[in-house]
């Protein structure tokens, strides 16, 4: 779980850098790649949040 969080954060930082470089160079293809990567990160983050919520709901000791 912690590896997923770290990977997502690293991917977000990398995507932000890529988008900044693409905007600076006026490279539309690289910018499109950054946008698609950001969408993939957002989807992965949503899946991670769902998994964390399901782990909280399955807590056997909470009863």
Q: In short, what is this structure?
A:
This protein is mainly α.
| Helix content range | over 70%
> Kindly state the mean pLDDT as a whole number?
88
Structural class: mainly alpha
Beta content = under 5%
Order of helices and strands: HH
Q: Identify low-pLDDT runs.
A: none
Question: What would the principal axes of the Cα set say about the shape?
Answer: elongated
- Sheet with the most strands? none
Separation of termini? Answer: 24 Å
Tally of contiguous helical segments: 2
Tell me the total number of β-strands: 0
Work out the radius of gyration: 16 Å
List the helices and strands and how they pair.
Blueprint lengths: L1 H24 L2 H30 L6
Helix pairs in contact: 1-2
